[in-house]
Design a protein that fits this description.
Pfam families: GerE. The chain contains five helices and no strands. By secondary structure, the chain is mainly alpha-helical.
Amino acid sequence: MSSTPPSIAPVASAPIAHQPIAPAGRSPLGPRHGVVHLRNRDVRRPDLSAREIEVLLAWLRAESKEQAASELFISASTIATHVARIRVKYAAVGRPAPSKSALFARAIQDGYTTLADW
């Protein structure tokens, strides 16, 4: 049995046009990983304030805005306002994040957190 699903077999067997380049001290992922890296200089990061990052991470950890608000001693509507502004900033740089999972991915891509933190 093949490990490559039939629907992506043509893509998986396509030649690689370039070699992946890894950040200093890291091994590049091989072509078999089939991943796209967003951690490069061409990707624009929004200018999030320290407080926006703090609120974002608290909300990502929490099961609700109310729980995050309690942790930060603010109201749930303040959490909602911060999250809305963060989404606007990501959309403004061409990287929309319309869901909580998309914001989680952006936080990882932009180095605000890692999978090891979770």
